[in-house]
Every structure is written in C-alpha cells, then in structure tokens.
Specification:
489 residues; six-stranded mixed beta sheet; 19 helices; 15% strand
Length: 489
C-alpha cells in the first residue's frame, strides 16, 4: 500500500487517558526494507483496534460483562478525542438508553419565533438542533436498557442521518454504543434484548470478555488510584483528516485487498449439500447430517453481505493507517492479514453457526470466530502464491491464472514456479533449443492452471471454500488496468 501522509497526527496523540487494555487483538505480518524482505509480526493491542475504528469512522458496539471497561473506552473517546458534549461546547453526544428516548425530540426543537397567532402550523416551527446534527460522535451507553421497539430510535445515529438530515461534519460521523452480553445463552442481556436490525448497523463489535484486560493492565490501573476526571481535549480535525485519507483509499480499487475480501463473501458461500453448492436460507440446518470431509469450516461460518464487506475494507485500511502511524511508513502489511483481522470484529453480525456456538464453544462466539479465521487463512494459504502472481499480472493488464512449473513435476518442492506469460514460455523454449543443440539436458516444465474448473472443485472439496470466482475476478482487474493511463516510474 502507498504511504500515508498522516496530516500531523501522531500515534501518541491517540493515547487514552484512563482506559487501558493491552490484550493482544490484531496480528499483522509486516514487511520492512526497500524490498520488503524483512518480515515480522506486529501485534496490536485491543485498544488500538478501537482507535482504528475511530479513525476509519466505523461505528462499533462494545459488549461484555459489567465493569469491564466498555463505558470507559467510550468516555475517553468522547472527552479526549472530541472535547466532550456538544451541549457544553464539545463535538460529541452522550445518552444513556431509556424507554422514553425520542430521536426527533433530541435532534429537533421549536423555533419560538415561529410560534404564535398567524405564524402558521406548529410543525413548521420545528428546526434542527444544529450543534447535535453536526456532532461528530454519538454515543449510547447501555443500549439494551431500552426495549427493542425504542432502540429503533437509534437507527438514525447508526446510519448518520435524521429524517433527511446528514449527521456529522465534513463527511465524518461515528456511532458508539455498549450493551451487556448473557454468556449462558449467547444473547444480549439487560432490561431487553438488542434489536437485531440495530446490531447489524454496527460496523464492528468489540468483545470485552474475550479481549479482557491483562494482569499488567490491572497493575497500571491499581497504581493510578481513583481518577476524578480528565481535561477535555479536541483532536477531531486530525481525526477527520485521517478519516478522509482512509476513506479515499478504501474507495479505490485495491486488487489484493478486494480479492481477499471475496474470500469472505463468495469464498465462504460454499455448501456441498446444496444442489447449487451455495449456502442458502436453510443454512446451517443441514450441517448436522453432512458427511462432507471439509465441513468443519463451511459449517462454522457463512459468507458476509455486501454492506459488511464494504465496512470491512474501510476498517482494514484503518488498521493499516494505525500500523503505519505506530511503526512508520517504511512497512507494508499482508493484505490477507488486514482482511482476516478486520473480519474478526464482525463476530455478532449473524455469520456464525449459532448451534455450533452453543454446542462446541459454550456460547463463546469470539472463540468460534477465531478458529474459523485460522482455518480460513490456512486454506487461503494453499493458493495464496498463485493468487498473488495472477493479481500482479492482472495489474499489468494480463488476465492469466496459469503457472509455469520448471523442474521435476513429481517433486514440486524442488521446482521453480512463476506466473505464466507468453514471453516466459518463449524464453524457456529458446533456452531448451540451445541446450538441445549443445546436446545437454533440457529443462523440463509444465503449464497448469490452479484455478481451472477441476482445480476449483478439488479445492472446495478439500477446504469448504469456493475459488471458482477468481478467474472472472482476474479478468475484471485486467480489464480495469488496461483502461488506466500508464504511469511513469
């Protein structure tokens, strides 16, 4: 990925004044050096995942038991990133959910100059509360204290709008909420269950019970003692600058990121028991009686919808931005890691097999997501080299998925493989002609396609993942880059 400008924002400015959680949450393979030859694993703590959500404008829901830090994280962001409440001069709002909440009463008011005899209908005197409309961040604590019917009132905050009015400023609007989770039955506990439609409007979810504070975090908090409060601080302009850069990158075509996102949509769609080999509404009802050898992954999780994958791309770029902010620009990060680690925080979007969550994971959704992603990354790794080679070719305008394997085909470990091209084949043939003329042993090679129909069927049978979408994807990438003007090096 290209370097980030960062617009003067530095990582230290994102330090949260009270909230602490250094639980390892995101693992990214990082390449350093001019050729990217030095590789290492960068582990980001849980608090960094939340910072990435803020920078990328991804609305998030904090879930977990009481007194685990859900509200404190939101309070720190509210006061230390956005300067506190808009009604007191800040750029954020804070509400505790209640059954009498009305979004219209909150965002609208009566213009008293428009009230009175001969001044028209009262409804015409209703005007927006501009400071709340332009608030950059809207927070609802303990959202499931309100009944599901009232939680509908928060839809507008989650969608950044109120009755045709756009919430936020300069394109930025963040929604955060918290709720308690009942670990016994995997549902959301409080006064009420959480409205499923509202839940699906959150870009990511942060599970505070799974990513719980470390012992060292507890030591830090204990050494501080009681904290009465913090000085308000507003770094929202820098956050908006970061958001705009992240959004710009997320809106652009990124052949590698886009390909691995397809694993989460088209790839996870496979179902061997369906006549069309697709997961449909009945999933996972047939999984229990399925004897498919690779059903371990395909029965654990289903594909993501378009809305989720779009948000994932922006959040992935947010993680990338934060990693560059923390480590410097002289790094590159594996796209598959960015996508998989982003997907980790969509656990409660309804993608998991809930029956398996209870039977195999005792209601621990995040553990099931972790294991699903491990299997997904292992399976993708089987064809990753071939995918990357084909994508590089497609970026040059060549729609080609074939591979040239040079050496003894019976011993692939001693072979050299390269993406197919007519010029590469011609060079091999020419070299063999010269060797033949010198009566020397010629180099043996074979041309094969790891994404032909049979290879795709074999891969699905082995892993429970579809890759038959990849050839058409490569064609679309090549078609796109053929229409782009050539850049000068």
């Amino acid at each position: 990925m290209e370097n980030y400008k960062k617009d003067e924002l530095i990582y230290e400015e994102l330090k949260l004044p009270i909230f602490v959680n250094n639980s390892p949450a995101v693992s990214l393979t990082v390449h350093e050096g001019s050729e990217g030859s030095d590789s290492s694993v960068l582990v980001l703590p849980f608090s960094d995942a939340a910072k990435a959500a803020v920078l990328s404008g991804c609305s998030f829901l904090n879930i977990g038991d009481t007194r685990c830090g859900k509200s404190q994280l939101m309070r720190d962001i509210h006061e230390n990133y956005f300067g506190g409440d808009v009604d007191n001069g800040g750029k954020s709002t804070w509400n505790v959910a209640r059954n009498d909440f009305s979004s219209d009463a909150y965002f609208m008011t009566i213009n008293q100059d428009g009230v009175g005899e001969g001044k028209g209908m009262l409804s015409e005197a209703r005007v927006p509360v501009e400071r709340r409309i332009k608030s950059l961040c809207n927070i609802v604590d303990e959202v499931n204290l309100a009944i599901p019917e009232v939680q509908v009132e928060f839809f507008g905050m989650a969608e950044s709008r109120h009755k045709g009015l756009t919430l936020g400023d300069k394109g930025y609007n963040l929604f955060m909420a918290s709720c308690n989770l009942n670990r016994i039955n995997g549902d959301f506990a409080g006064t009420s269950q959480i409205n499923r439609a509202l839940l699906n409007r959150f870009g990511v979810t942060f599970d505070f019970d799974f990513f719980r504070k470390t012992d060292e975090d507890d030591d830090i908090l204990a050494s501080r003692g009681a904290v009465d409060g913090v000085q308000l601080r507003d770094i929202s302009e820098k956050i908006i600058n970061a958001y705009q850069e992240i959004s710009r990158k997320a809106s652009q075509k990124d052949p590698f990121i886009d390909a691995y996102i397809r694993f989460l949509s088209s790839g996870l769609e496979y179902c061997d028991k369906d006549k069309d080999k697709r997961k449909k509404k009945i999933w996972p009802a047939k999984c229990g009686s399925c004897n498919f050898p690779a059903n371990n992954l395909c029965s654990m999780i289903k594909q993501s919808n378009t809305g989720t994958t779009q948000t994932l791309k922006r959040f992935a770029h947010g993680l990338d931005f934060l990693a560059h902010l923390k480590q410097g620009n002289e790094i590159s990060i594996e796209p598959l890691d960015l996508i998989a680690e982003s997907f980790k925080f969509t656990t409660y979007h309804g993608n998991l097999n809930s029956s398996m969550t209870l039977s195999d994971y005792s209601g621990e959704d995040q553990e099931q997501m972790r294991d699903s992603l491990t299997k997904l990354k292992d399976s993708a790794g089987l064809v990753r080299t071939y995918m990357d080679g084909a994508i590089y070719n497609a970026c040059e305008g060549n729609a080609e998925t074939r591979v040239i394997r040079i050496g003894d085909a019976t011993n692939p470990d001693l072979c050299i493989e390269m993406p197919y091209s007519d010029s590469a084949k011609a060079e091999l043939d020419l070299a063999n002609q010269e060797l033949k003329m010198k009566k020397k042993k010629q180099a043996s090679y074979q041309i094969f396609d790891p994404f032909d129909r049979q290879a795709c069927e074999d891969f699905a049978k082995k892993t429970g993942l579809r890759i038959d979408w990849f050839p058409s994807y490569i064609k679309s990438v090549a078609d796109f880059y053929r229409t782009q003007p050539k850049t000068q090096d």
